[in-house]
């Protein structure tokens, strides 16, 4: 059915629906983009927490080495307590990281660090602690210092942190891109809604206002006695067409 044959109420409904459709489509896209931003923000918060956990693991690893060195240098038992605290801290932070990460590669790296440090603890650190408690074993304990390095553990923790930094950077870039898309969509959607509103206004003007104007002019001519005036829009099937048919009946009756 042609637009001009629709009832006036339906013409208005079509015009309103067209503007609303453009607005709703833009809003849906923006909503989807906002969901992407929210998801990325949530994941970044978790990634930042995991980065802090990596820092804490590195600190706990270094602290274990330092406390054992302090014990070797001074023989002070307070270092044993500090060693145990650092050991527990590493276990706790590693457990937190493994529980929260979604990366199998990162989880495997943390497990590698745990294995390296556990070997160092059992094969060196705790042997030295035990020997330091024996006055006759202190020289032997000190001689063991540095025989099992933790260099690989530190390198692995550095690799984990670099991977976390890359993940965060990637998600920040995705968030920035999504934010830009949302802003662009709002702008384009608003402009599109305005253009559709203008287009529908022109269409309504041509299909309603202009024909009624022409009808009014014809009725004036007929009222002035000019029975040669053509009645426009008699072929239409809307309210304008109904008016035109009524005027045509009036004209035909006047010609008889």
TrEMBL record:
Heme listed as a keyword: no
Q: Which GO terms describe its biological process?
A: signal transduction
Please give an example of a GO cellular component term from this record: membrane
Q: Which Pfam families match?
A: CHASE3, HAMP
Instruction: Spell out the InterPro entries in the cross-references.
Output: CHASE3 (IPR007891), HAMP_dom (IPR003660)
Q: Which residues cross the membrane?
A: 184-205
Record PROSITE patterns: HAMP
Q: Which Gene3D superfamilies does the record match to this protein? A: 6.10.340.10
Q: Where is the HAMP domain?
A: 206-253
Which keywords belong to this entry?
Answer: Membrane, Transmembrane, Transmembrane helix
Decide whether keyword Membrane is in the record. Answer: yes
What is this protein called in UniProt?
HAMP domain-containing protein
| Higher taxonomy | Bacteria, Pseudomonadati, Pseudomonadota, Alphaproteobacteria, Hyphomicrobiales
């Amino acid at each position: 059915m042609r637009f001009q044959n629709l009832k006036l109420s339906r013409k208005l409904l079509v015009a309103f629906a067209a503007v609303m459709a453009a607005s709703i489509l833009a809003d849906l896209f923006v909503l989807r983009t906002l969901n992407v931003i929210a998801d990325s923000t949530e994941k970044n918060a978790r990634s930042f927490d995991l980065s802090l956990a990596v820092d804490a693991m590195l600190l706990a690893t270094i602290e274990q080495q330092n406390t054992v060195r302090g014990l070797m240098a001074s023989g002070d038992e307070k270092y044993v307590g500090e060693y145990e605290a650092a050991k527990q801290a590493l276990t706790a932070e590693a457990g937190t990281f493994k529980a929260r990460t979604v990366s199998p590669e990162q989880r495997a790296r943390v497990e590698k660090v745990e294995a390296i440090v556990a070997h160092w603890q059992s094969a060196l650190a705790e042997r030295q602690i035990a020997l330091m408690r024996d006055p006759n074993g202190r020289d032997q304990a000190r001689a063991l210092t540095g025989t099992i390095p933790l260099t690989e553990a530190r390198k692995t923790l550095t690799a984990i942190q670099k991977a976390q930094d890359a993940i965060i950077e990637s998600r920040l870039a995705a968030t920035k891109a999504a934010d830009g898309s949302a802003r662009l969509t709002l702008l384009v959607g608003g402009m599109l809604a305005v253009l559709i509103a203008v287009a529908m206004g022109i269409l309504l003007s041509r299909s309603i206002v202009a024909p009624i104007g022409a009808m009014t002019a014809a009725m004036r001519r007929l009222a002035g006695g000019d029975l040669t005036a053509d009645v426009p829009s008699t072929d239409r099937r809307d309210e304008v067409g109904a008016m035109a048919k009524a005027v045509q009946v009036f004209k035909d009756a006047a010609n008889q």
